[in-house]
Amino acid sequence: MVSVMDASILTTLYHMENRKSLLTAGFLALVAAGVGFAVRGGLLGEWSSLYGFTFTELGQITGGGLLGFGLVILLTSLIVDVVGYKKLMVLALVCHIVSAAMLFFTTAVFNSAGKEATYQLLFWSSFIFAVGNGICEGVINPLTSTLYPERKTHYLNLLHAGWPAGLVLGGIIAFGAGSVRWELLLATYLIPTAIYGYIVFMNKFPKTAAQEGSISYGGMIKTLIGPFFLVLLVAHACVGYVELGTDSWINRITGSILKSAALGTALFIYTSMLMTILRFFAGPIVHRISSLGLLFASALVGALGLYLISIGNSVPFMFFAATVYALGKTFLWPTMLGVVGERFPKSATIAMGLLGAVGMISAGYLGGPGIGYKQDYFATEYIKQNAPETYERVKAPDENGFLFFPEVVALDGAKAGMLADNAERVLGDVKIAGAAIENPEFNGLRAQRDWWMDNKKFAEVDAGPVAEAGLYGSRMAIRLTALVPVTMAFLFIILMLLGRTRPIQNEG
Q1: CB neighbours of residue 259 within 10 Å
Q2: Per-residue confidence of the chain (508 residues) as pLDDT tens digits?
């Protein structure tokens, strides 16, 4: 017969093992998110060439996903205490599956309905994928804080090592772009999704603080009111912009600078691998310099890294610049969550949800589209001044805008792609279509062929200025983005000063 003490020990051991399983599920959910994010980033160039998207439109597709991510984190944080962790994770699983299923209709939609319908399909697939990611994020952050109350910042960094690990895998998968159907490449995120889904179904989840009755919704919100949390939200909006917004584009930008998409992807894999490793060592670093001290140092290093990327030319220098950038951004997101967990332990579900929502909405509404717009704006200004006739031939049919900034008629991605490869891809697809090219389902491909036939005599003249304009736009966009982490550094100084007067929330 098992004694009461033995039963207690067995229960404790079970929960210790159970929390490892749940931490693993959260880690894999972030791996799935990272794979989808990285592969999508690696496909931007292919989508531009295939479907004729401008940089601003591509930024809206990726940004829309991040925007949805943020809104859902906020909603999840408000209902997790009612619905519970497990049911929400099952809903996230469904969203990830539906998003993947939508991808396989993209080419058929483009051929039959054109660019606008294709844009809508990719945008909403990205949005639903982000809904799944947002639900996961809204669950696993407070869950990890609950499972490991003794070392919150360390285990949140360890949990969020899943994100760069997914970026590494996604970057490797993105190397298949052009040789394997892109839909299959992007759907590979379903593999870690299936594994985390199995763990979710097989394990029991703990209750939240509100479900246990130790604090009310009103009590959670009340503890957050004050300048410290407000400044924290503004700082995390900057974190979302500089980390996720930049990562939406960094593949394409570094590839443009190095004149090699493969090298751009290799840099992305390298920096993501570095982040994965470093996040396992956050605990000892925080123990030495404090969470806010680590955030301040990270912001300054990140700003330097972005500036160095913007002026880089050679492969060795770019690897050095990317290393500095990776060191700067590695600890930002999870350490911000750790600060919340440390200072507002009873309000973790809402506090972390608000923080994550602000970061993702900033990345989606400002970061992705903003960096895309900056590339379009500076590339357009460059080519207008240096090759106005080329601009008239290669410009997109519609104008794009961003917030209150002036609208720009940017370069058409499909036309630029045909100049880059001498229309080999388009002409190859036309040959495969054969006589059916005149059918309605090939309207988009036929329009690209017709433009090339009318303008190929200018290809030798136009190719150089278009490539130079794209490179200039990339450099200027990333250089201006370096100002964001500089702003963050000032905000972290303010938080350090406020932290001396703001007591940590009472656990009792």
Answers
A1: 10
A2: 444 444 344 344 445 567 888 989 999 999 998 898 888 877 777 787 778 776 667 767 776 666 666 678 778 877 877 788 888 999 999 999 998 888 888 878 887 777 788 888 888 888 888 889 888 888 888 888 778 877 777 788 788 888 888 988 888 887 766 677 888 888 889 999 999 999 988 888 877 655 555 555 666 677 777 888 899 999 999 998 888 777 767 777 787 788 777 788 788 888 888 888 888 776 666 667 778 888 999 999 999 999 998 888 888 898 899 899 989 988 888 888 888 877 777 776 778 778 888 887 887 778 777 888 888 888 888 988 898 888 888 888 777 777 777 788 888 877 888 888 888 877 877 777 777 777 776 777 788 888 888 888 888 888 888 888 888 888 898 898 899 999 999 999 999 888 765 545 544 3
405: three-class secondary structure by DSSP: strand
Q: Coil, helix or strand for 412?
A: coil
- What is the DSSP-derived secondary structure letter of residue 401? E
Closest CA to 126 of 65, 193, 183: 65
- Tokens found for residue 230: 């407000």
CATH 1.20.1250.20 fits 16-203+216-381+473-499, yes or no: yes
Q: SS3 of 503, please? A: coil
Closest CA to 245 of 129, 355, 363, 332: 363
CB 149 within 8 A of CB 39: no
What CA–CA distances, in Å, run from 10 to 66, 134, 204? 42, 35, 16
State pTM to two decimals. 0.70
Backbone angles phi, psi at 375, to 5 degrees: -65, -45
